[in-house]
Amino acid sequence: MNAHTHPEHPSPQDRPARLTVGVVGTGRVGPALAAALRLAGHRPVAASGVSDASVRRAAALLPEVPLVTPAEVLARAELVLLTVPDDALPGLVAGLAETGAVRPGQLIVHTSGRHGTAVLDPARRAGALPLALHPAMTFTGTPVDVDRLAGCSFGVTAPDELRLAAEALVIEMGGEPEWIAEESRPLYHAALALGANHLVTLVAQAMDLLRTAGVGAPDRMLGPLLGAALDNVLRSGDAALTGPVARGDAGTVAAHIAELRAHAPQAVPGYLAMARTTADRALAAGLLKPELAEDLLGVLADGGTA
User: Fold this and answer.
1) What is the C-alpha separation between 188 and 135, in angstroms, rounded?
2) Could you tell me the end-to-end alpha-carbon distance of the chain, in angstroms, rounded to an integer?
3) Which residue ranges in the chain fall short of pLDDT 70?
4) pLDDT, tens digit, for every residue of 134-180?
5) Does the pTM exceed 0.85?
6) HEC states along the chain?
7) Of the candidates 28, 116, 202, 277, which lies 20 to 30 Å from 289 by C-alpha distance?
8) CA dihedral 52, 89, 111, 190 (to 10 degrees)
9) Calculated CA dihedral for residues 101, 106, 107, 112, nearest 10 degrees
């Protein structure tokens, strides 16, 4: 969806003017967002990145954009994307502000999920306009990421007077703005990490176990199953729960744990933790019958060793 067809696109006076764009940190996120902004009419003019991978990403997504120091990025750009790891962001902002790199009226945007705009206070005190725009998307560092931004939700935090500008930038990148209060940013980010990052771990572990069980193409086996499960839970929440834990099949769960202990002991703690959480949610949703829950919870409590 582009900015001109979005039903809630801000009126022309609320749209940001065509801006020169700089990127500090050419990891997987920054070049993709800058490339999306270029498609919307903005002009990337500078980027900073030192690793070989960063240089390659910048060359692929931002051809002909020079790689310079972070201070020089700020000197050239009206809109600066700070796309560095969460833990590096406070030090970067403080350093740029202390050295006088930040200019009054400059839009300083970070893409951290954890932080709101408070982390940008040193830049704000130097006259910058602070925005937190976090794309709720996993990035590959390749041009495909620009297409994936279409319809992607962004966690948006900004001062009230900049809210329309923040939302307009998100829409111009093809995204959907979702307002997140400053104090809710860590919880918001924890929710995304729980769902997306842990999903990758679970699926990769399931693929390893299927290979051990002799399955030649675990990706093809899991694809339809996981796709259906994801669709069901997004539509129905806990009502989508299926499987032995939700049914209260204590014997099957005990057999699972025994097999995991024999063939993949590193998977046992995760299986137990998720099974206990699943049992709690299935009970609360009325899916797991209380009379079956006792034996199941007993198996999970002793880790299947009784």
Assistant:
1) 12
2) 56
3) 1-16, 304-306
4) 999 999 989 999 999 999 999 999 999 999 999 999 999 999 999 99
5) yes
6) CCCCCCCCCCCHHHCCCCCEEEEECCCCCHHHHHHHHHHCCCEEEEEECCCHHHHHHHHHHCCCCCECCHHHHHHHCCEEEECCCHHHHHHHHHHHHHCCCCCCCCEEEECCCCCCCHHHHHHHHCCCEEEEEEECCCCCCCCHHHHHCCCCEEEEECCHHHHHHHHHHHHHCCCEEEECCHHHHHHHHHHHHHHHHHHHHHHHHHHHHHHHCCCCCHHHHHHHHHHHHHHHHHHHHHHHCCCHHHHCCHHHHHHHHHHHHHHCHHHHHHHHHHHHHHHHHHHHCCCCCHHHHHHHHHHHHCCCCC
7) 202
8) 110
9) 10
